[in-house]
Amino acid sequence: MELGLYTFADVDPNAVDKGAEGARRLANLMEEIALADEVGLDVFGIGEHHRADYAVSSPATILAAAAVKTKRIRLTSAVSVLSSDDPVRVFQQFATVDLLSNGRAEIMAGRGSFIESFPLFGYDLDDYDKLFAEKLDLLMTLREEEVVSWSGETRAAIPGRGVYPRPLQEPLPLWIAVGGTPQSVARAGVLGLPLALAIIGGQPRRFAPLFDLYRESARRANRDPATLKTSINVHGFVADTTEKAADVFYEPQAAVMNRIGRERGWGPTNRQHFDQSRGPEGALFVGDPETVAEKIVAHHKIFGNDRFLLQMAIGLMPHGEVMRGIELFGTKVAPLVRKALTPAETGA
Q1: What is the reported pTM?
Q2: Any idea where the Luciferase-like domain is (predicted)?
């Protein structure tokens, strides 16, 4: 199983000098990606947002910078909001990252859980699903064909045009990211695309039927489910002790969840909710290396996932603590998980 990290590059939305705040965060982010590579993690993902509380609106730009600072770690969006972007440009940008990284780029495409990009780029939210379906179809065509002929309702037709550059990987890896919508899960299975499931609340085991739906949808579309990869993407943090991990992570994570909750009508979180969620059945993977490794292994038994991505740098997490967390994740957690899973994976 691959182990990695993802982040949205959170910044202080109330910073007076937003340029300086963004520059600080992106400099720290480059250090975080480089360290993740050094300690042997497999994947690093960057999210796309168009809000004051996040520094990255163009994941491919950040990943291109990371490509020349790293050697082996895979570099992915997490996610690219395909519905409000141009698939041709998305493909070209990630093909460029792939060339810069010597074949380590991936696209994780999603519909977007935030909607700011739709009015920003002139799209109607009433076309939310149609935009994603059509643009995903075009992106898949771009991966397969150098000279593209395509037409649809949400974008100008392409009358037999070549699309360049071509990536080193053929085809360029493409994942579908979902937040729990069964229709999106089934679509990924029908199309034969890898599936990344975000779990940021509740009991993760309750999401396991979605992977069953995914595999069954693939089977019904005459695809071999055994060839399709899955990932779970979660919140969490690693520190030298479980007590420290919880104390450091609680305030930044709670601030983000409460800010988003006010926008979406969720109830506020508190320390009691947080502590319950970092228990064995909860959605937070927070603790010392042994605690986090045990929980990752336990959930692998539930999901059978091929990839596990952890969002540690959430909210205004102190950079030094994040760097220590990455070090522990790569040097302590990852070896424990790989050792525990080796017999199961060998016998699979």
Answers
A1: 0.96
A2: 1-302
